[in-house]
Every structure is written in C-alpha cells, then in structure tokens.
Amino acid sequence: MRATIDPEAGFHVEPADYATDFQDLRRVRETVFVQEQNVPLEEEWDALDPKCHHVLARDAAGHAIGTGRLTPERKIGRMAVMRDWRGKGVGEAIMHALLDRARALGWPEVSLHAQVAAIGFYQKLGFEPYGERFDEAGIEHQAMRLALTPTEAVPRAPSDLPPAEPPQPVDSAEQAAAALLRMIPLARSLIRIYTRDLDPLLFGRPDVLDALRQFATGRRGAQVRVLVQDPANVQLRHHPLLALAQRLASTFHFRAPVEPQDEHYPAAFVATDRGGFLFRALGSRFEGEASACAPARARQLTALFDPVWERSRVCSEFRALGI
C-alpha cells in the first residue's frame, strides 16, 4: 500500500509499521478513545494489533492526526481522527486506504463495528448494517459489512526512483555528510535545504560542496532552494557555499523565513525530488535519520518546506554577491 497524498487537503495517509510507528498510533488512539470516549486503556490494545495492517494520517508537518487498522479477521477497526481534523476528509481517506489494502489482499468482504453515531459515515462508503446493536467498551455499536470488488492488476509505469531504503539513524557530522553524499547525486533537479546557518560542518565540507557543484552543473534546470534562518550570520562567516552559489547563481536560491514559527523551527533537513532526505530534529545537533530513497518521508518534508518557502523573503544579505 502506497501513501495516499492530497496536497490540497494538507494531509496524507500512509502505511504504518506497528513497531516503528507505535508512539504515533498510541498518541492518536489513546487521545480519542481513552481520553475522549473513556474506553478503558486495557481494552484499547489487544493481541491482534501487532498482526494488523495499520495506516496513519499525517499533516504537512508529519504529525499523526488519524489512524485505522485492518485485522486478520478481515475487520476494519480502531478508526480515530484527532479533534481538530474531524470533518476535513481524514476519516474517509483512512477508510479508502484500508479498503484498497483489503482489495489488494483479495478479500471478498470486510466488516466493522460502527459506533452508532458513525453509522451514516460508513453507509456513505457502501457499508450495510446487519444484526442487532450491541455494547462494546461501554459504547453502543452496530455491525456493518461491505462486499469488495477485487482490484484488477494494472501495469505499473516504470519508476525512475532508486531502490527504496528504510531510514537509518545518523549520529555524527560524518554520518550526516555521508548521507548527503549518497542522496545528492541521485536527485533529479531539485534539492531543498532548511537550515539555521548552512551548517558549516556539513555544507562547508569540500566533498559535499563538490557534490552540489556536480548536481548544479550536470542537471538541466537544476535548483537548490535554501531556507536560511540566520542569513546575517552566514554572510559574516563567509560560508564557502556562498562562493559556489555566486558562481552558479541560476541554480542556488536563498530565502529567509519571516514568520516566527518558521524562524524558530527547531529542526533542519534536506529533501530531494527523488526521495532522499536527511532530517535532524534539532538543527544544532547532528543526530537524526536519513535515507537515499524514502519517498513518503521526503514528501512529508517537501510539504513542510514549500509553504515556508512561498512566504519567506529573498535573502537581501546576499545581494552583494549576486545571489
């Protein structure tokens, strides 16, 4: 199951790994079921969870806003959407993702236990009620089911993405630089960088600068878009990337955030248009994660970057350099 993305909606739905994404699953489910609906905590989690197909809805910043699961018993359950995102199509998107997965598995039918207040929602998706209503975790429910039409195999267009790689931890500047040296040559035509001060220990390295130079000169229409939170400091330190950008001014573009939340965004990251990313939760440290090709994560970062880019100003501090 691939990520379901709607740029206009401000969120996307992606497959979730129970072990890796457990904290996000827990945050959504315990907020909705345990805190809001007073479901006993011991009833919220069961032995089926590790065996289920889970999905997560995430906002543009990557925060979990909804979830659902498909059990080996061919039931959909644990449908939950955070309060601020209700009524915005998140639940429907989660359902479509789960139904697509069930069809891909060849299942002829799926069922669910709908809270009575949500029966109409499921009926709009084609589910039909059956049997008597019943109590589950102190809440009245109705059993519902939906017959599925198997998905026909459609030849997939060849992808130009490199082989997908699971994100790997990064613990040092050396490892972060190694990640950049793997992803930069694989970029198609656009690299996005969100940084406080151009990270001299990364983007000041000769090997990283050379990789960026080769990208800039070896790709038609190549662009490197850089959001710099502290451009004045970068100029004072005579960062070597500025010298490269001065020679390749049509490729390198710098902007500075103006909104407080953008100026004080704590993380730093790089994302390429072929799925590569390097993410550090604290821009002042090098610990983080990276992959040469993890398209879903790279899209999350791109969705975070692009709106900030649009509302940021051109770095007037660099005008004297012609960039």
Automatic annotation (TrEMBL):
Q: Which UniProt keywords apply?
A: Acyltransferase, Transferase
Q: Which InterPro entries match?
A: Acyl_CoA_acyltransferase (IPR016181), Bact_Acetyltransf (IPR050832), DUF7931 (IPR057691), GNAT_dom (IPR000182)
Pfam families, sorted: Acetyltransf_10, DUF7931
Source species, domain of life: Bacteria
The N-acetyltransferase domain covers 11-149
Q: What GO annotations for molecular function exist for this entry?
A: acyltransferase activity, transferring groups other than amino-acyl groups
Q: What is this protein called?
A: Putative GNAT family N-acyltransferase
Q: Which organism is it from?
A: Rehaibacterium terrae
Which lineage is the organism of this entry classified under, starting from the top rank?
A: Bacteria, Pseudomonadati, Pseudomonadota, Gammaproteobacteria, Lysobacterales
